[in-house]
Design goal:
- It is a single chain.
- The protein is an all-alpha fold and 160 residues long.
- It has one domain.
- Helix content is 74%, strand content 0%.
Length: 160
């Protein structure tokens, strides 16, 4: 399958999930970063355990499936709770940034499992070459988004 098609499908699916749930990009972006770190640390160790549990796939390789799952799992879990956006433009922007950051973090595991040729190779090379900038920008924007989250203040008992 063409890597460009895979990236577009992943981008659209994650965008749709983030937009539908109205979750803030800050929380989801940092969850993606945590998932990426977990994937780097544990994918190789968990793959044999997953294979022993009876999960067998030939294409894509099982380590790719485990890596992608570890990257996305924390963010997918947080899609069901946490702060939300109220305004539609912010929902659109947050969902777009979430999808782009996820694709940048998934470029290595997905690219290693795909045959890269033609336009797909150009898309992969562009994202891979700019991955550091995309991830850095995404994480900075996620932190800035978290600064915009306002929690309810407790009222003082004696104040009317």
């Amino acid at each position: 399958m063409n890597v460009a098609i895979v990236f577009v499908v992943v981008l659209l699916l994650l965008f749709g999930l983030a937009y539908a749930t109205k979750r803030r990009f800050g929380v989801l972006g940092l969850a993606l970063a945590a998932g990426s770190m977990l994937s780097e640390l544990w994918a190789a160790e968990l793959t044999p355990l997953v294979a022993e549990a009876g999960v067998l796939v030939e294409r894509p390789p099982l380590i790719t499936v485990v890596s992608v799952t570890l990257v996305l799992l924390p963010a997918l879990l947080l899609l069901f709770s946490g702060p939300t956006y109220r305004e539609t433009p912010m929902r659109l922007l947050g969902a777009f940034l979430f999808a782009v950051l996820a694709c940048a973090l998934l470029v290595e595991p997905l690219g290693s499992a795909m045959v890269l040729q033609g336009e797909g190779r150009l898309v992969y090379e562009f994202v891979n070459e700019n991955r550091v900038y995309i991830v850095t920008s995404g994480l900075i924007l996620a932190l800035l988004d978290l600064l915009g989250v306002h929690t309810a203040r407790r009222s003082r008992a004696g104040k009317h």
